[in-house]
Specification:
Layout: E1 3-11, E2 17-25, E3 29-38, E4 43-46, E5 49-51, E6 57-59, H1 66-91
Length: about 90
């Protein structure tokens, strides 16, 4: 399964949630509401989730193995960094 498109839908530099992302796979499947979050020492990706009646958050969609998680996270964070550079250049 190949990542064929990544769209940064919202960027918010003022909060811990830095961006909301949509990722398309094989030009056939899209997952919306993936979040770029500022952690204690680095950015990370949080998959879309819903709150259970018990107050827990459960992922709606997520990678099954570490290889896919690493590929997805690095691709999203690369695109996010590129979007920040474009935003900075447009502000000049």
């Amino acid at each position: 399964m190949q990542i064929t498109d990544i769209r940064i839908r919202k960027i918010n530099l003022e909060s811990k949630m830095k961006a909301v992302v949509s990722v398309t796979f094989d030009n056939s499947l899209v997952i919306h509401d993936i979040k770029v979050i500022e952690g204690a020492d680095k950015l990370f990706v949080a998959m879309p989730s819903r709150k259970t009646p018990e107050g827990e958050f459960k992922d709606i969609a997520h990678p099954i193995n570490m290889d896919m998680r690493d590929k997805l996270e690095s691709s999203i964070l690369d695109k996010y960094q590129s979007a920040l550079i474009v935003d900075a250049e447009e502000m000049e």
